[in-house]
Specification:
The complex is a heterodimer of chains A (about 300) and B (about 140).
Chain A (H helix, E strand, L loop, with lengths): L21 H12 L10 H9 L2 H24 L1 H9 L3 H29 L11 H20 L3 H34 L3 H31 L4 H23 L11 H21 L5 H4 L5
Helix pairs in contact in A: 1-5, 1-8, 3-5, 3-6, 3-7, 4-5, 4-6, 5-8, 6-7, 6-9, 7-8, 7-9, 7-10, 8-10, 9-10
Chain B lengths: L2 E2 L3 H13 L1 H6 L7 E6 L10 E8 L2 E7 L2 H6 L2 E6 H8 L5 H7 L3 E4 L2 H5 L2 H12 L3 E2 L5
Parallel strand pairs in B: 1-7, 2-5
Antiparallel strand pairs in B: 2-3, 3-4, 5-6
The chains are: A mainly alpha (about 300), B alpha/beta (about 140).
Chain lengths: ~300, ~140
Amino acid sequence: MTTVTARGLKTTTAGGLNHALPPMRLYHKAKELGIWNPKHIDLTNDKADWHKLSDNERDVILRLTSLFQAGEESVTLDLLPLIMTIAREGRVEEEMFLTTFLWEEAKHTEFFRRFIDEVTGAAIDLTPYHSESYKQIIYKELPDSLNALLTDPSPANQVKASVTYNMIVEGVMAETGYHGYYAMLEKNNILPGLKEGIGNLKRDESRHIAYGVYLLSRLVASDPSLWEIIEERMNTLFEPALNIVNEIFAPYDPMPFNLQIDEFFAFAMNQFQKRMSRIEKARKQTIEEIDKMDV
Amino acid sequence: MAHEVFTDAWAQAWCSKINENENYKENAKDWEWPLILKMSGTSGTDIAEDRAVYVDLKNGECLAGREATSGDMEKAPYIVTATAKTWQKVLNGDTDLMTGIMWGKIKLEKGNLGAIAQYVSAAKQLVVSAAKVETTFPENI
């Protein structure tokens, strides 16, 4: 009879699951806060509002929605290599959180498509709204950096993938976009269903970004030289990320809904600085200290 | 010919390199404001006093480059400040100007972030041009 060697499955050892780990704390939050159903959001008033909007107002909403829709689909499609990498390292608590992460991205994808189908009725191809900088990040940098983990799941490649996914796509593009979009809907008192969905999305995304800050901090605490890769990656991606905002505003004069480009950049800078200084601190921290971080 | 960083001669050389940069021309067609880069002095180093250089930029061209005067400091709508070490990293290509600003390592001492962020590609090309200037740094920065 062949003897099968032990796998070292954590949940049947004396220690069991470590509920104090940041990703495990995020997992517990996700079970409480991430359970909203895109199908249950009432879009009745949104349909009525849509017909009252001007052509330019509809155009900017379709533009923003097409960017978020494709972004959510991309992050749904591209997350798996990171989950596989974490699973292969036997980090069950992190993988448990990542299952909620992927499920939430799928719901975000569903939500925007429901808005397009049921409110805008736009049976048209929305991809012409994707600008060059957007395509550089969403069509190329994101899938390339995540798929690189399939053949080389080294810490350096994990850093590149997480900076691209969590810090740039989620942390700069999505969070800033959702913040501006939500504020616009609130200020103009329109599309309440879309606003409710984006409110839910924002909460989900904040957990995803918090995981990215944890992952990058853990990697940097294990090997401080990885910090240089974070800097290098940021230097590459910041220009197209900021240009996406510029390219959203460029076609309109005046910008519908009185959207202010300065507010987008100020919010992005504030959030970005907080996160990067947290990750930078990890260069001088131990893993034990990282495992106690607030999320 | 090499020039010491953020001196009058360096600023003139930078201005010439900006005018040789086709990508800058392309990305800065609508930029029409002077800009000052400032290096904050640190006591106990070879750059104990602040240094600042001024470039007059208009529609993709550099009209003049010089060590910034007090009048320039007053009139220029944009002043970007960092330590000598940070500027060294910028000129070596290790830190991107806009990334540094967003990160807080480089300060926008004067001017509007939203306005400058709209010219992120032009800002990158200004640094590309500066990196082409043969630059020396004092030993102890």
